[in-house]
Amino acid sequence: MRVSDGRESRLVVIIFGVFSLIAFLLVFFGGLFDFSIESYSVQRFFMAVMFFGIGCTVILNRSYRLFLFRDLWVGFLVFFLFNCMWFPYFGRGYSWVEPGMYSMFFLGFILVGASIGVGQSVRDCVIIFSNLVGVVVFLYGASTLTIYIFALSDKALDFSLYIPWGFVNIRYWSHMATWLLPILPIAVLVGPIKDERLWRFFVGLGAALWWWIVFLSTSRGTIVSVAFGVLFVTLLIGRPAFPWLRVFLRYFAYGVIAWLLLSVLIPSMLVDEVTLRQVKSDTSGRMPLFFEAWKMSLVNFPFGMGPQSWLTHNIITESYRDSRKFAHPHNMYLMWAAEYGWLLVLSIVLLVGQAIYKLWKRRCEIRALSDVTEGRVQAVVISAYTASVAAALIHASVSAVFLAPGSMLVGFLVLCVFWALIMPTTRYSSCMLEGRRLCLVAVCIAGVWVIIWGLWFGEVWDYHSAMVEDLEYYQENGSGGMMPRFWFHGNFPRTGQ
Length: 497
Description:
Layout: H1 10-29, H2 39-60, H3 73-83, H4 86-89, H5 97-116, H6 120-153, H7 170-180, H8 197-216, H9 220-237, H10 242-270, H11 286-299, H12 309-312, H13 318-321, H14 332-340, H15 342-368, H16 373-395, H17 405-422, H18 435-477
Helix pairs in contact: 1-2, 1-6, 1-17, 2-5, 2-17, 2-18, 3-5, 3-15, 5-17, 6-8, 6-17, 7-9, 7-16, 7-17, 8-10, 9-16, 10-16, 11-14, 14-15, 15-16, 16-17
């Protein structure tokens, strides 16, 4: 039985748009709001609420009728392997918190992507999200210019001390650049205002300023990963991706010009010596962390040492004992292998393989329609979102892309759209229930979901309360800084607690 798009997925699209707007406000401008807790925790709490709201929307909208089980089995495998670690460690050191977060993250974007639907619903999500990206990039870039002007007036020699702003670590901003820079050209290629000159000017200006910040902060992870994503898409999609590629390269060129103007030419006219942040050729102390995580992953192979064991385990390698400590090993895959085991990493590889398989099938459809307007539009959209996801996956090998709350919020939304884009254009219903029986099933599933989420969120709340109580002790006795992980005070629980 074929399932039409219609009203089935409209509610999911509306909720997706609302959560996207709030997420962007909290991630980029959260510091402007007067919250009782720091913005890092606000973003994490909002992510938990977003999981709940989207989960209820998908279930009660009965959108699970739109996909077959074969499209979800890998997601359920990832969900199970994350959660199989709950039971041996349940009740010890808030070990339920992070596995639950990752389970909802990975299974969540698959469910939402499959629930969005086809046709107009996907286009609506693309337009909503891409236009929001254009607005946010411009507003953040424009506000950065004001900070730049104040820094110039104070004769500041190193702008990277002030820019980017609004993030506890400049690398957290670089995560945003990795996710969003490949998507930005879609704002002027798709949508009802794509041909408006003023809109195109603002988006181009925002792109130039963001690339300038990338160069200013020497975000090597962003530059390398985005370059990989662009190369991957160009080779995979081919000629149909060229319209997106041209705009992307034009924005990159704007960024180079902005860097020469704002970081070299103007400062050289105002100060005697221009200070430029040096591009490091080393690993910034990451190799001891990588090696320690690798050794951890072999201790209880292939099951890992348990959730948050990176914070609490007895140090294995001497190189890590003598190096600077962080709340994560700066490599998401090694961290998951160390804490959850190589079986979990294998399931994530299978999930990526499933996405590539679906993407290849959609690529064949797109190339067959390359002479049709609709086919050209699909090509540039899929190119942008594929490049974004590919770049994030590469960046995650050297940074906490799937750990920082802001990156997880934006990444979740990007992955939702990406999964919707690579889903088959024709879907079939695997549900034989109709009418009242179907509503009853939906209500029962929603009830189970509310209980599971409520238990998990209670643990999240208790974890935050314990972190706040421990903060004063840690600030007086700790020497590693805040080291953010799940919460801003990431080095908690500690060994012996």
